[in-house]
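Worked example 4.2. Below are the chains of a multi-component assembly; read each line carefully before continuing.
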Amino acid sequence: MPATVASVAYLCASLLFVMSLRGLSTQESAPRGNWLGIVGMSIAVMVTLAGLLWPADPTIEAAGAEVLSVYGGALIVGGIIGAVVAARVAMTAMPELVAILHSFVGLAAVLVGIGPQLAGADLHTHDTAHYVETQVGVLVGAVTFTGSVVAFLKLRGTFTSRPLLIPGRHVVNLVLVAAVLGLAVLGRVEPELALGCVLGIAGISGVLGFHLVAAIGGGDMPVVVSLLNSYSGWAAAAAGFMLSNDLLIITGALVGSSGAILSYIMCKAMNRSIWNVVFGGFGEAPAAAATGGAPAGTVRETQVAEVVELLRAARSVIVVPGYGMAVAQAQHPIREISDRLQAAGVKVRFAIHPVAGRLPGHMNVLLAEAGVSYDLVKELDEINEEFAHTDVVIIIGANDIVNPSALDDRASPIYGMPVLEAWKAARVIMLKRSLAAGYAGVDNPICYRDNTLMLFGDAKASVNKILASLQTP
Amino acid sequence: MSHALRVGVPKEVFPGERRVAATPSIIKKLTKLGVEVLVEAGAGEGASALDAAYSEAGARVLDTTQLYAEADIILKVRAPIELGAGAHEVDRLKEGAVLICLLWPAQNPELLQRLSAKKITTLAMDAVPRITRAQKMDALSAMANLAGYRAVIEGTHAFGRFLGGQSTAAGRIKPARVFVVGAGVAGLAAVAAARALGAVVTAFDTRPAAREQVKSLGASFLPFDWKGESGEGEGGYARQMSEAYLEAEQTFIAQEAKNADVIITTALVPGVPAPKLLTSGAVVSMARGSVIVDLAAEQGGNCALTESGRAVEKFGVNILGYTDLLSRMAPQASELYGGTLVALLDEILEDGQVVIDYADEVVRGALVVHDGKVTWPPPRPAIRAGAPAPFVPPTVEPPPRPIGSPWPGRIGLGLLAPGLVLLGIFGSAELVERMTVFLLACVVGWHLVWSVTPALHTPLMSVTNAISGIILVGGLLLSRGRGLEPGTLVGGAAVLLASINVAGGFRVTARMLRMFQRAPDAAARKK
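Applying the procedure described above to all two chains together yields the following structure tokens:
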């Protein structure tokens, strides 16, 4: 098979990936976008396999049955595992799934990077550029791998979501980076040590990835997961440079930019700089500030009966969901409440903050799962003006994203973060387990406002009780 | 005291006053506080509450003498007045009793003397400080809200035309223009009521904070800025302004008055006569048949021609100086006023006894006579940061500038430029070619992803996750020969991992995307 055929097929696959991402710009075109991606991927895999069977370079032997069976087996087994996991995963567990999938790409990139050396290929027959490409691929791949594993464990709760802050952690990071650089140089000047150096780089990068993500608090996971998404793309792109494969470069670049933009959006939504998130440690200083100048006040506790009465009397209602809704799996009863209110002529909307949940767009997915019409689901900018004209706001499992301190308290660690201005509504009902502070460890003055009623207890139980009372006329 | 505390509700004696301090439903709330309630026979007549209803609610109905003889606490609407023939309402109270009513201590110094001589512990509802905690005891706001509404109703009645516009077969009716002077609680209530009737409403206030509130009710706000003086006084009330300011204000209002069909004036400054904002000149310039409703009539009126308590016609303009607007809504006014009384009583009752706590800001503010001494005015409280008045939302600073410096971008460009130069000098042709593809793809990706709707960010992640599984192509390419070798096995492992990604990513995306639907599709799916 001539090399040009493969190149053109790769070009087609690249274009299909571009159109696939383009399709995601609206809900209507998104399913088609997904299909285009599938078609692109199939073309890429089949053309590559065909290239192995009928090599363009006559000096290269065609792949035999053993090779094909190894690859075919891997494709089928991997495909089945992926499909089964994807079909079974709960929508609330999406962040974990996405994180662990990133780790696979990272590990695959490491394998692709060190594969040729393990197979006995001599890196020194190539120029420096190729050498650097390989090492970059291994470095980024290994950081992605261990970082994603840590993120996965943190999201699952296996690992504490508190940031792991060892003293002098920045120095540790610097030392690790210096060690990687040192090994890279050593491997280049001492050819016989090359294999050891590559493995060493993989190992040290893995430790670096672990340490970097362990130092980041659970509340920052949306940023971390997007960043790792970005890294997995860059790792694929680096592999593309190493293998001189444009398809890998283009796809890697697309994925890399995508993750970078998502991270940027998340950071902006928290009014934090990316460095602040990446190098972690958020959550120590604020805790001190919260105990120091806590604007303690009195909260007004309410009961389900009063909430139901308020909802019945309301003309417009906005629901503000947060991670707590995902944890409590309360999206289904919430949707039923929304249906019931709408049937009674109440205007119901859902307000989504960009960092609500543990993944960009997480709340949207959960509400979609519950069957909430997506034109009821509004973004921060669309809905913020509306709160002032709203009768009742229900805050479920959200805290920092509705904290008025972000606007008016210069001393607050979240000052400057854009928030949903829920307190402007006539009545705010906050469903909360207790009066504990939110993820950022910051006291939330919204609880002490006169128009705020606190409904304490498990979110799902409370929501179910509200639903039950609404159903009985 | 062996018996439970007795709370007496006498009949109001002020001429024309129809309100009563407690309606039967308020009696129930009072009883819940653990007190016994006594009501004077006929007290609720003006407010459509019969004695029988009071008895049913748990009150004992007594005659005047008995009531005052037994009651430990007297709840009233109006301040005690002269009864004629040298008698005074204060004389009826038991020595040492508690009196709670609207008292206007600043205007009634001799009444305070009289009360202190009789050792009456007196709480003035109009002196309750306007702080957030005391909102439920804010009788003035509750009353002003009703008065503002009623002013529009009375004004419309006298006006004799539609307030809203209409297009009829017989011709087009223009909406009336209502001009509200003073956008306090009463003013805002008037704005809302006039808007609801369809009028074109303009409002004026010297406090800049009023702008947002007026706008939120759908009326336009007339800004008045004079040498930077703001009319914002303490506790959300207006303050008294200088002479020259007043003159400028009068000229400004006269300009607006010319075009107005109905003017509702509500400008009051605590403790002083109402400012004369509408001059007789302004009234002359108004169209015949237009109406002025002067809510400040009792405090002298905002209009120079207002006659307190009466409706008069001057220069063809109806000027309503009614002082009994609240009595015209007596049942509701009584109900709301009673509610504020219950809230204040709750504040001073402890285990069925009256406990006056000087440290309680609300009680201290309202307390005008105690232990035979006049305790008004209260010492100035420490300045509270932003004590919000009702209807005045907390001032929010302009949103802070987001953190972020242009430096990362500049550094990026700064690194890219020399990087490209180095690439040009030292890079191989192949590397340059790959770099071209890479950088262009980054730019394409950047623009593509910005167009993704935020609601689809999770599917975006799972799709990019799936396509980053393209690394499996790299795994496949590791094998460079016929048979099995280490490279093939390592490559196979990479392919295995990456294909989990590909299949998992695409499948979960498809699953998620199926869930996103609009209401009609959702309904279809349910069937």
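Take a moment to check your reading of the output against the notes. The CA atoms of residues 182 and 197 of chain A lie 9 Å apart. Chain A touches chain B through 133 residues (CB under 8 Å).
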